[in-house]
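Recall that a protein's primary structure is simply its ordered list of amino acids. Everything else, from secondary elements to tertiary packing, is in principle encoded there. The following example makes that idea concrete.
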Amino acid sequence: MSSHEALTDQTMERIEDLIRDRRHATATDTRELTALLAQPPIQDIIALVERSPVVRAAVVLRLLSRKRSIEVFDALDAAHQADLIGALQHEDVVDFFGELDPDDRVSLLDELPAEIADKLLSNLDASERDITGIVLGYPRGSVGRRMSPEVPLVHPDMTVAQATEYLRDVAHDVETIYTLPITTRDRRLVGVCSLRQLFTAAQDTKIEALMEYAVRANAHEDAEETARWFLPLDFLAMPVVDDSERLVGILTWDDAQDIVEEADTEDTARSGGHEPLAQPYLATPLLKVVRSRIVWLLVLALSALLTVHVLDTFEGTLAKAVVLSLFIPLLTGTGGNTGNQAATTVTRALALGDVRKSDVLAVMWRELRVGLILGSLLGVLGFVLATVVYGLPIGIVIGSTLLAVCMMSATVGGAMPILAKAVGADPAVFSNPFISTFCDATGLIIYFLIAKSVLGI
């Protein structure tokens, strides 16, 4: 570790000690804390705020310089910002809110109670309020809700010299100048030009000679789907248009990356059986963590009653061949794992656009064959081991059940995310927890039916 890193670590430890002891802090401690907060890199301060309870995080923001505190606040998730609003002084909140970009401002407003949101909007100047209102006018989950409406208006009949002079004047008031949408005087999008092209062209060159076809998105399109096809193109930004092809904003690469990261976080959480926290773990109030999990636990507990009912139905079969109970964990675990593997794979393929809703039959047929191969391999292994220990009839039951369960679980696991998307539900919701429960119950039914047939009980 370098001396600079060691110094930073010692500084951060001292900062955390002073924050924890704020109740007994003296004026000297406050001055020391203010001085120490100016030393570490900005990323360390952001991490400190994310790891701290709301009240302590608010203290940090108040003691930072105005510029530094705004940078830290801007880097936080919208849900975390919303929690901090109540702990900050009114003038701090107004400053932070006013410095946010319009799209980030709207994300924060979505997390706040209506009365607080209205109060914050009323403190904006008229121009900022109008710009924010443009973004608020689009539906949640749409590209328009995540775009920035602050874009330069460069026209085809401008020369490079005119465009450069114009960009110099508006550079601080727009989201980006590195990707330039080219529009007619009535804002109709006709092309796009990069800043590199502008700087390398002769001053008297017309913009129309430099512009290229503009890959664009409609403001009403789904934000996640748009972000997923936009990111692989490696563009810095993309124009956003309305139904009349008029420019209404721009979607930057980093905003698209945020959209995808939020969607992936949500899918990961739901596939694991809980709601996403939407803010750093250590900064999340305890009751919010409980709420994110309890509903799913109750749903899964109720659905598990189906498995109990199946066992109760075949209680007589178990009583006649007790050895069958030994293999229940193996068979239910194999079915659940096979279904989860298929569901996870297909959910990811849906997110990337590799699979569409119309591909449900092709996916089911593909997963059926995958399940057949996996089931054959596991079935042969189960047949050999069960036969050696418990005899040929039990070996046949275990081998046959593993084959059937793998085929069923893979097929169902592959189909469920697509069916969920078709009815407008989140594919991740139909993933691991529900598939495990479904495969447990149906796997046991298959198991006992095969056992009754083979063993004659």
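The first strand starts at residue 179 and ends at 183. Confidence is low (pLDDT under 50) at residues 1-7.
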